[in-house]
Design brief:
By secondary structure, the chain is mainly β. The protein has no helices and 9 strands. It is elongated and about 60 Å long.
Length: 102
């Protein structure tokens, strides 16, 4: 677990129909001692992830949202377990959603 973490989100309503936002997640360096077969210590530098989104209210009932996660495609480990098993975090990805309410 990192010693320090910071999460900041900012939203901006351009008008009544359009909203944009930015989310950043930062964490300090982490280390996990004695995880390798020869008691190696795993270390990962601190890193920052940036996510953005935009939504558009087409009508009172129809909304379209686009999200881009890990905007700068930062390569990082989301977890490190025993025996040198590491799992990379999610790479750059995008999604588009449509929401209809009645």
């Amino acid at each position: 677990m990192p010693d320090d973490m910071l999460r900041v989100s900012v939203f901006y309503d351009i008008n009544e129909e359009v909203r944009t936002g930015l989310n950043t997640n930062w964490q300090s360096e982490i280390s996990n001692p004695n995880v390798g077969p020869n008691d190696e210590t795993f270390k990962q530098d601190g890193y920052t992830l940036v996510n953005v989104f935009a939504s558009y209210n087409i009508s009172d009932q129809l909304k379209v949202t686009a999200n881009v996660n890990n905007l700068f495609d930062k390569k990082y480990y989301s977890s490190i377990d025993f025996f040198n098993q590491g799992f990379f975090g999610a790479p750059l990805s995008a999604e588009l959603s449509v929401r209809y309410s009645w």
